[in-house]
Amino acid sequence: MTIPKPVPPRPDCRLVSYNVLYQGVAPDGHGWVDRRKSVTDELERLGPDIIALQEVWMEQFVDLRDSLSEFSWIAATETPAHTPIAYRDHTFEVLDSGTFWLSPPGAEIGTPAWDATYQRLATYATLEDFGTGRRVSVMNVHLDHDGQQARTEGMSLVRDRLTEIGGDHVVLAGDFNCQLGDPAHRRGTEQREGWVSLSDARTVAETTAGPTHTYTGFAEQSYQPSEIDHVLVSDGVDVERLVTCVPPSEPEQRPSDHRPVLADLSY
What we know:
Layout: E1 13-19, H1 32-46, E2 50-54, E3 56-57, H2 58-67, E4 71-74, E5 81-82, E6 85-88, E7 92-101, E8 121-129, E9 135-142, H3 148-165, E10 170-175, H4 183-189, E11 198-200, H5 201-204, E12 207-209, E13 229-234, E14 238-244, E15 261-266
Parallel strand pairs: 1-2, 9-10, 12-14
Antiparallel strand pairs: 1-15, 2-6, 3-5, 4-6, 7-8, 8-9, 10-13, 11-13, 14-15
């Protein structure tokens, strides 16, 4: 008689952060129409409770929203590009949410700040679990790919806003466009009076799995693979598992030039 393996308990929250690549900048053969089903298939395979997506244009947003029917969405739909947050609406109630530009006070909307190539947007949500009453505040960010100052100053704005939002359970996820130890990442985990304390999930996770690189490009591109997608958590959040996920279709057909990052969280 074969004794079945015990099924591990479901975490309080499974979060997936995923840069799905703007539809208009993909190389030939990797347009959104070629990738959208594999992106949604991958998200369904991973079974997240909360999704933080980057590089989502409106047409992509509509496709994802229509395909992932068990989720509700928080996004600034009046802008062409989004950093939306999706959550299972039978699990969570939204207590607070919003978006804000990563630019200094008084900056013109749509104008890149500091040394950025594009003006960037962050999205946040405070969610309460219907079953347990536990609350978690999640922020999704996509920092600039060119400007180091913009990444670092943008991260300062993110830390300030997270402090305003408050709460014992805070998660910051997204494409930071920088490696561990770079100035913006250091700013994200900097211990400063008044800021919510954050740690990189890789350093506090009970277990980690998957390859090192979260950015892979496509086979015909010459970009350097790198680890630029991150999840940061407050002291009140335990990371049971942190995984850089490899979609089953890789490498024949990558759903995106990034891999999704999965974090099993308890709080």
